[in-house]
UniProtKB/TrEMBL annotation:
It comes from Enterococcus dispar ATCC 51266. It comes from the Bacteria. Pfam families: DHH, DHHA1. Residues 16-154 form the DDH domain. This is Phosphoesterase RecJ protein.
Length: 317
């Protein structure tokens, strides 16, 4: 029995299923989590299906979370999507269920759970969930809302099909989801549009990015600057890809100071592998898209030096 059949068997066995994702969700986290929840609601109307995880940080046009009392975890199947490391699971009650399933597309550095399905070749966890649903057409039903969410997750994690993880199969799955007839144009506008204050922050990023001779870039966004632009950390996700539009940029870090003083680090690359850098600084992720943390500006400088070394080595290959 392959892993998909094992997961389906577990889903069929449990009457209550609670689905989690990672903290600070992006469209793929919500798309895979709530997309799966909607598939299961449509397929098994008698089951109790919940989505847990707290605030969705500006992505409420995609989905909202359920209030899940502690007692509901007893005897429940818990599924965690799009989350490589257990400390990043939003709402640590995920471990209180009777059985735990991990579904993810990040490198499997921590194979937590009773059943683990990881496909690092998938563009997104939403692609995996859609593929899972399409694999059992006689059992699993994809509603229009499920299709909308899964499509949003794929679009989000592929950068609108621009990133290298996009494959012909990704496009095939996305095409099948489009056939469900949700308003894709509206969804794409919602995913793309930014506020005026974030637009002004984007201008700051372009004006203040530092790029060395090998294409290593960095932008530091201190808390005082965020206050000046009246933006919060979750809104800075919109500027992370901007350095990649510059022709000479090869890999870069966006360093966002948090209210507690440390820096949230978003790393991106057009070639050099940067997830090993992230792992050395309390993070992880994909080879070309990762996240980490820096306790202070000294560690910010250290991370930037590692980005510089990665770019230099990449150029010399």
């Amino acid at each position: 029995m392959n892993i998909r059949h094992e997961i389906l068997k577990a889903i069929e066995e449990y009457d209550r299923i609670i689905i989690h994702r990672h903290m600070r969700p992006d469209p793929d986290a919500l798309g895979s989590q709530v997309g799966l929840a909607e598939v299961l609601r449509a397929s098994f109307p008698a089951k109790e299906i919940y989505q847990a995880g707290g605030p969705v940080e500006g992505l409420n046009y995609l989905a909202e979370m359920d209030e899940v009392p502690d007692e509901l975890y007893k005897g429940a199947l818990v599924i965690v999507t799009d989350t490589a490391n257990s400390p990043r699971v939003s709402d640590q009650r995920y471990a209180k269920g009777a059985k735990l399933i991990k579904i993810d597309h990040h490198p499997n550095d921590e194979p937590y759970g009773d059943l683990v399905w990881v496909n690092t070749k998938a563009s997104s966890c939403s692609e995996m969930i859609a593929d899972f649903a399409f694999s059992f057409p006689d059992i699993l039903k994809i509603s229009v809302e499920a299709a909308r969410l899964l499509y949003a997750g794929i679009v989000g994690d592929t950068g609108r099909f621009l990133y290298p993880a996009t494959t012909s199969y990704t496009l095939e799955i996305a095409g099948k989801l489009l056939d469900f007839g949700f308003d894709a144009a509206k969804l794409n506008r919602e995913l793309q549009q930014i506020s005026l204050k974030v637009a002004k922050l984007s201008g700051y990023v372009y004006e203040n990015i530092e790029i060395d001779d090998n294409g290593a870039g960095r932008v530091i966004l201190p808390q005082t600057l965020l206050d000046e632009f009246q933006v919060v950390d979750s809104e800075t996700s919109h500027v992370v890809s901007l350095p990649g539009t510059i022709d000479v940029t090869l890999a870069w870090g966006i360093f966002v100071q948090q209210p507690e003083g440390y820096y949230r680090v978003r790393l991106r690359s057009k070639g050099p592998v940067i997830n090993e850098i992230a792992k050395r600084h309390h993070g992880g992720g994909h080879p070309l898209a990762s996240g980490a943390n820096a306790k202070d500006l000294a560690e910010v400088a250290e991370i930037y030096q590692e980005i510089q070394a990665a770019c230099r080595n990449y150029r010399q290959q």
